[in-house]
């Protein structure tokens, strides 16, 4: 079982991309106090807590699951879509990220019944082929 | 990863002046946070991801572009500001339920509740359930996030 091309997303999680994503909240909510540096941008600070390098924001790569569902299912996604993902390993600056939806059978079904819904496995991998996040996404039938 | 608002170099300083996990109470209500959605927000989000904005562009007459749901989900950071010092930590789980589109021009209100605190493998976790409503009071998005804070 492999994900169709339009249900896969691959990209480099560059430091520039992490910085751009981090700037979104500040641009939207100027009053929000955000200080520069830290484990999203400072390699030394990140390594001091055992990380390989600055880490990506989870929603940055998790958001690609939603984007794939929006691209494929449109209104069904925006007016009834659900997703839930557990995070397994960090994604760091420079990692090559691959997001796949529907690439394999659902591993852990939703805890609540999803009758009359299409439920798909959602996976995020790094360049080593390691699963960094996994869960499911669903839309009404 | 969580602690998206955190600055590692100033974490100690933050922890001294901001509430910690121990101060956080289950049942604490956070927000409301209100803002207007703009086309610039949608474009900035698509640029940062990066993803093509086409799926969020609505061609139907009278409709405005749609805000990507995951952008709205980042609002847990401002909701918790002043309530918890977001230090180093791991995002454990995040769930989203999209109910109605949020469109450019909409004014939305975001609010939430701390629903759980727990310890696991020496880490302290919190869970926040939060939701986005539009100006008509219709619920558009529900999210739940569990993170550690170290």
Describe this structure in words.
The complex is a heterodimer of chains A (141) and B (150). Chain A has 4 helices and 5 strands, in the order βααααββββ. Chain A has 141 residues and is α+β, with helices and mostly antiparallel strands. Chain A has one domain (5-140): Thiol Ester Dehydrase, Chain A (Roll). In chain A, a hairpin with a 5-residue loop joins strand 4 and strand 5 (131-140). The longest helix of chain A is centred in the middle third of the chain and has 16 residues, at 58-73. Chain B has one domain (8-36, 67-149): Thiol Ester Dehydrase, Chain A, CATH 3.10.129.10. Chain B contains 4 helices and 5 strands. The longest helix of chain B has 10 residues, at 39-48. The interface between A and B is large, with 54 and 47 residues.
Q: Quick one: which chains have the greatest interface?
A: A-B, 54 and 47 residues
Query: Which architecture of chain A per CATH?
Result: Roll
* Superfamily (CATH H level) name of chain A: Hotdog Thioesterase
Q: Which residue ranges of chain B are poorly predicted, with pLDDT under 50 across at least 5 consecutive positions? A: 1-15
Rg calc of chain A: 16 Å
Share in β-strands of chain B: 25-35%
- Classified by CATH, the class of chain A is Alpha Beta
